[in-house]
Structure formats: structure tokens, C-alpha cells
Amino acid sequence: MKQRLLFLGPPGVGKGTQAQQLAARRKLLHLSTGDLLRSEVAAGSDLGREAEAVMARGELVSDALVLAIVRNRLENHAAGWLLDGFPRNTAQAAALGELLEELQQQIELVVLMELDDDLLLQRLLSRGRTDDNETVIRHRLEVYQAQTAPLIAHYRNLGLLESVEASGTVEQIAERIEALVG
Ligand code: AMP
Fold it and tell me: Which of 35, 110, 112, 150 is most solvent-facing, going by the fewest CB within 10 Å?
């Protein structure tokens, strides 16, 4: 069974749901940078105040801020983890590579969840998060294409990438992912 996993895919594809459920079944740490940032915003911390406006616009929060969050969690959780929403650009992927080398841990599988743009938009519009209005959603999809999608080739070249069609029910998608994790 693979236990150091990374989930990749556009906003609205269902990464959060699948990542959370898989992590619970396999007893892995679910590390969602989006969830961690939202809890900082809710707590009104300095970090949360810094992130809030950026998130509301659908832009990416600074690499340094996100990296500090991730380093802290991974250092204390070597056994197994599932990264969701991080890395989000090539600089973060490079920083993650260095961090994992330092911690002597390795990514075992990158799951790319794929879905048609129209379905993504529908899913995002039905979710009702504060950064889920149509203008911001379109911008988040553009940011994904420009900054995050290049990671697909990066992880494919490392031989780590497997794709999953993210249509159908939550259970059907979960079965496809389970088959890859082993
Ligand atoms: P998510 O829940 O993954 O869709 O993330 C929601 C928002 O949090 C994003 O639109 C970004 O503003 C911010 N965010 C989450 N993860 C990252 C990351 N790895 N790097 C930069 N910003 C992030």
C-alpha cells in the first residue's frame, strides 16, 4: 500500500472529499492547505488576516506562508500522509522536494483527478463557499491552468503520476483511487 500521496487536480474536482475519506480509511494525515488556511482565517490569527483577502480573490497565498504550515506538519508525521491543495506551483513543488529529501521521505503516488470544465463549474457553484462566486471561480480555474497544471508534467516525468476520471458518484471515484493506492 502506498502511504505518501499527493492529490492534484482543478478546483471543484472533488479532491477534498476524496482525500479526506481516503486518509480516514488508511489512517493517513490529511494535509489540506486550503482547510488549514480557512481555519487560520476563522481564528483571526495574523496568518489568517494575511491570507484572507488573497483567498477571497482566488489568488494563491505566498509560498513562504504555505511552506511554513506544511513543514511543521510533515516533520511530525513521517508515517503516512496525503497532500491536498499543495504544491500549487513549481516553486512549491521544488520546495517540497527539498523538504522531503531533508526529512528522508518520498512521494509514492500522485493522483491526478480530471473532470470536464462545465462539470467543475457546476460543482463549484453548488458548494457555497465564500470564494465560490462565478467571477472568483473562473479566476481560480485560470490560476490552476497557469500555475498548477505544469506540475502534471513534472510528476509524470518522475514516474509518479496516475490519472483518475472524476465523474460519477463519490463511491465510484473512491474505488478508482483505491485501485491505484493498492
Ligand atoms: P483550496 O481549498 O485548496 O481550494 O484552497 C482555497 C484557497 O486557499 C486558494 O484559492 C488559495 O488562495 C489558498 N491556498 C490553498 N492552498 C494553497 C497553496 N498551496 N498555495 C497558495 N495558496 C493556497
Answer: 150
